[in-house]
Amino acid sequence: MILYFTGTGNSRWVAERLAEETKEKAINIAHLTEQKREITEKLMKGESFGIIFPIHSWYAPRILIEFLQQIHLPHQTYRYAVCTCGDDAGKGLQRLSGHFRLDAAWSVAMPNTYIPMFELDDDTLCFKKIEEARIRISSIAKDILAQKHVWEVHEGKAAWLKTYIVNPLFNRFVIHSKGFRSDEGCTSCSACVNSCPMNNIRLQEKHPVWGKGCIHCMACIHICPHEVIQYKNSTRQKGRYHLKKYLTRP
């Protein structure tokens, strides 16, 4: 079984392709909050268990960590993780494996989506990353089917510092809902509400309002059809990412 968490769709795409090549089923963790007991029973019967997720500030998203803390697998179950990242994963997977044993782990470079701090990758780089990801996913699938114990994670420079120092500070001082807003032009279409994997957005007086559960996945910003959702003043002049645009060569 493959469980995944996704914001802008990169990790869902990777999970679905892996599921197709390994003949497994890919399930969104965000949809399992009311079914933990049922899913745990299914996991107990499986020979392998995979988790696919995006790197958030060089570690795993909070929702994934909390979910993994509530499930228990037989010791013999083959466990693996695949993270998606714009560039590097830091020590994120190593840190995760400290409290949830992993037999294998990989990172897959995908187009960057965290526009509050970074620019979007240009179209050429996005297409390049997607094509390279297709090849890498096929290679990963073969290793998973053979239940290989491998660790192919691009940690990047200053990996320990990023994961163990920057990440906790980032979570404490940056990861919250303050700063999100909708500019003039909002049509109350609810795209942001429906896209939020944390169910953290609601419409109030026909405008989106963010609750306290935000994890900065940026799904609401990228999904808005009118590009009027902003984070402070750092996203107004930046583009928006749409995975479908890059799945087929022009």
TrEMBL record:
Iron-sulfur found in the keyword field: yes
Full protein name: (4Fe-4S)-binding protein
Residue ranges of every copy of the 4Fe-4S ferredoxin-type domain listed in the record: 178-206, 214-234
Record Gene3D superfamilies: 3.30.70.20, 3.40.50.360
Keyword terms, alphabetized: 4Fe-4S, Iron, Iron-sulfur, Metal-binding
Top-level taxon of origin: Bacteria
PANTHER family membership: PHOTOSYSTEM I IRON-SULFUR CENTER, PHOTOSYSTEM I IRON-SULFUR CENTER-RELATED
Coiled coil: none
